[in-house]
Amino acid sequence: MEVNGDDGEPTAKSSAEEEMTTFSRHNFGNSENTDDGFSVTIIENMKEEYGLFVWPCSIILAEYIWQQKSRFTGASVVELGAGTSLPGLVAAKVGADVTLTDDSSRVEVLTHMRRQCDLNDIKCKIRGLTWGVWDAQTFSLCPNIILGADVLYDSCAFDDLFATVTFLLQNCPSSVFITTYHNRSGHHLIGFLMVKWGLKCVKLLDGFSFMPSHKTSSLSGNIQLAEIILDTANRDDTKLM
Ligand SMILES: C[S@@+](CC[C@H](N)C(=O)[O-])C[C@H]1O[C@@H](n2cnc3c(N)ncnc32)[C@H](O)[C@@H]1O
């Protein structure tokens, strides 16, 4: 395997039978100095459906985690719809106890997550977690921080996602959902769903506002980062039944 690139550029093809597999390297801080930075290598597979690419939202959320690393050290973190898992891997690198999750029915994605961890020598738990589906594993999760990069892309799945996020926020007091998403149609629907599920946004940033300029050349779109918590003052649980 040859990995020469920098900051998310796919760099090399692997063997003939895996000719659609590429590797991208993502640098954080001063990656030459292990005291003040590191690199994460991600395997991407162009043959598979979406979920096995590093989407721009993931690069932006991973950079935010690096810049906010003191919040993550020692935290329990669950990444939803993790796919190639860059944000969760960065959280683990800065000292979080991370559970990477994706759709339980997409076994190839869960297998792929294990390969990402092994390649980077990072320890994370890996679980199937389908939004809006409740099983014993989901009930046992109690994260301080929930991550979701590009998980708000199919409005048919928004309610299921918000149901899972709300459950996790309720399960662990003072927890926060940090998400990056393409703001394609304004915040009306997301705002509506936050009210419906008794949540509120406490931070909303232009995803490009904190990105180092050398990381933005391959990124495009109107990407927002939101931090969302339970709105305990205005919560009416009877509306959710
Ligand atoms: C656009 S991809 C984003 C992947 C990754 N977070 C990133 O930004 O590179 C959406 C991810 O959500 C997952 N997903 C879609 N529907 C889901 C569901 N109902 N439950 C759990 N995961 C789901 C997909 O498998 C995929 O990994």
Task: Give a brief description.
GO terms for molecular function: methyltransferase activity. The protein has 241 residues and is an alpha/beta fold. The protein contains 7 helices and 10 strands.
Descriptive overview:
With 241 residues, the chain is an alpha/beta fold. It has a single domain, classed as Vaccinia Virus protein VP39 (Rossmann fold), CATH 3.40.50. Helices cover 27% and strands 27% of the residues. The chain is built from 7 helices and 10 strands. It has helices spanning 56-67, 69-72, 86-93, 107-120, 136-139, 158-171, 188-196, and strands at residues 10-13, 21-29, 37-45, 76-80, 97-102, 125-128, 145-149, 176-182, 199-206, 223-230. A 7-stranded mixed sheet has the order 6-5-4-7-8-10-9, with helices on both faces. Strands 1-2-3 form a 3-stranded antiparallel sheet. Helix 6 (158-171) links the parallel strand 7 and strand 8. Helix 1 (56-67) runs parallel beside helix 3. The longest helix has 14 residues, at 107-120. 38% of the residues are buried. The structure holds S-adenosylmethionine. S-adenosylmethionine binds at residues 50-51, 54-55, 57-58, 81-84, 102-103, 106, 109, 130-131, 149-151, 153, 157, 160. S-adenosylmethionine is lined by residues 50-51, 54-55, 57-58, 81-84, 102-103, 106, 109, 130-131, 149-151, 153, 157, 160.
- CATH architectural grouping: 3-Layer(aba) Sandwich
In the CATH hierarchy, the third-tier topology is known as: Rossmann fold
Distance between the termini: 52 Å
What hetero molecules are bound to the protein chains?
A: S-adenosylmethionine
CATH superfamily annotation: Vaccinia Virus protein VP39
Organism: Nicotiana attenuata
Region (Disordered): 1-30
Biased composition (Polar residues): 21-30
GO molecular function, one term: methyltransferase activity
